[in-house]
């Protein structure tokens, strides 16, 4: 009849449903089955790629800042070669900061790799220890420098003015402060010899001693009391050659007291060198003009003093 279905047809329809379900189950294996067979899991792949992206970002930042540091160091080096006043201090400051920053960034980039994390951590700790020791030493040296940054009252047998460069055959700004300090100091002293110490610098046509002689004599200092030491090229030579000149002119160095005229930041090292030569010395401080310039010279002097103490 029309309303009935054949028993065979009903059985066929019922049996076809599980067959289709089974086909679908076999055609779409689960994510677990994929991972078991070694097929790529997108979630796992994303997790593993995140550290790689972080490492690439750190590497890119490190390279970019390293490039900027090289450019800054290069520019300051060219400016130093152009003999811009005090540019050598800025160059060494820029170079030192650049090396420190790039080193920290390199360790930061190294720590992004799982295999190198422990090594980067150890190196960072070593670097921080070295920086702590270096900073402590720097502060101690600055304390010593500041302790001598003043004029001392004493009866002296001679005055030594240390050279500090020329500009177009005339004393540089720093050297003028030393010469003016010497003139003021001589007003309270009775006819003591003044040793002006400084040789011929690069690009100069007269010695620093000759330029200082002209400056002092034009301002009323007795020419017969101005002794020129014209061969030195460093603070150590300034003092060694000046003391030899004093001895040649009959001064007894063992019983003499010498006043050393220099800028305030320089006096501790100058007196240290004189003490090594066996001479008692006091300082006459010339004030360095400008707070920024003074800070730069005090900063640099700590390294010069460390070099004098250690070498």
Instruction: Tell me, rounded to a whole number, the average pLDDT.
Output: 85
Shape: elongated
Question: How much helix, percentage-wise, in residues?
Answer: 55-70%
The total tally of domains equals 2
Low-confidence stretches: 1-6, 18-29, 31-35
- Give a count of the beta strands, DSSP E runs of length 2 or more: 7
CATH 4th-level superfamily of the largest domain: HUPs
CATH topology of the largest domain: Rossmann fold
Tally of individual helices = 10
Class by alpha and beta content: alpha/beta
Which sequence of strands runs across the widest sheet? 5-4-1-6-7
Series of H and E elements: HHHHHEEEHEHEHEHEH
- State the distance separating the first and last CA atoms: 120 Å
What is the CATH top level name of the largest domain?
Alpha Beta
What is the radius of gyration? 38 Å
> From the 3D coordinates, which CATH architecture of the largest domain would you assign?
3-Layer(aba) Sandwich
Strand content: 5-15%
Main sheet record:
5 strands, parallel
Mind explaining what this structure looks like?
The structure is a single chain. This protein has 311 residues and is an alpha/beta fold. The protein has helices spanning 7-27, 31-36, 42-81, 87-110, 117-147, 173-186, 208-217, 235-248, 267-276, 291-310; strands at 158-162, 166-167, 170-171, 194-197, 226-229, 257-263, 280-286. It has two domains: 48-147, no CATH class; 158-290 and 304-310, Rossmann fold (3-Layer(aba) Sandwich). It is built from ten helices and seven strands. The protein has a five-stranded parallel beta sheet with strand order 5-4-1-6-7, with helices on both faces. The chain has a two-stranded antiparallel ribbon with strand order 2-3. Helix 3 runs antiparallel to helix 4 and helix 4 packs antiparallel against helix 5 (117-147). It is elongated.
């Amino acid at each position: 009849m029309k309303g009935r279905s054949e028993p065979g047809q009903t059985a066929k329809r019922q049996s076809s449903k599980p067959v289709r379900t089974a086909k679908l189950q076999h055609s779409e294996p689960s994510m677990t089955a994929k991972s078991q067979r070694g097929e790529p899991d997108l979630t796992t792949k994303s997790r593993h790629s995140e550290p790689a992206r972080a490492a690439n970002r750190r590497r890119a930042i490190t390279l970019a800042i390293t490039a900027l540091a090289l450019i800054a160091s290069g520019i300051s080096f060219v400016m130093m070669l152009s003999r811009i006043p005090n540019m050598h201090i800025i160059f060494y400051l820029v170079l030192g900061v650049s090396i420190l920053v790039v080193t920290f960034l390199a360790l930061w980039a190294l720590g992004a790799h799982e295999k190198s994390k422990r090594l980067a951590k150890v190196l960072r700790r070593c670097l921080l220890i070295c920086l702590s020791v270096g900073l402590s030493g720097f502060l101690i040296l600055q304390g010593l420098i500041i302790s001598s940054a003043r004029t001392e009252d004493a009866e002296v047998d001679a005055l030594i003015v240390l050279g500090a460069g020329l500009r177009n055959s005339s004393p540089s700004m720093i050297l003028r402060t030393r010469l003016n300090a010497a003139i003021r100091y001589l007003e309270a002293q009775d006819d003591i010899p003044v040793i002006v110490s400084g040789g011929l610098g690069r690009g100069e046509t007269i010695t620093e001693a000759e330029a200082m002689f002209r400056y002092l004599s034009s301002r009323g200092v007795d020419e017969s009391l101005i002794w020129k030491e014209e061969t030195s090229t460093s603070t150590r030579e300034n003092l060694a050659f000046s003391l030899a000149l004093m001895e040649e002119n009959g001064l007894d160095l063992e019983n003499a007291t010498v006043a050393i005229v220099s800028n305030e930041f320089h006096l501790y090292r100058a007196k240290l060198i004189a003490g090594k030569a066996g001479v008692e010395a006091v300082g006459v401080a010339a004030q360095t003009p400008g707070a920024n310039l003074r800070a730069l010279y005090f900063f640099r002097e700590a390294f010069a003093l460390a070099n004098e103490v250690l070498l």
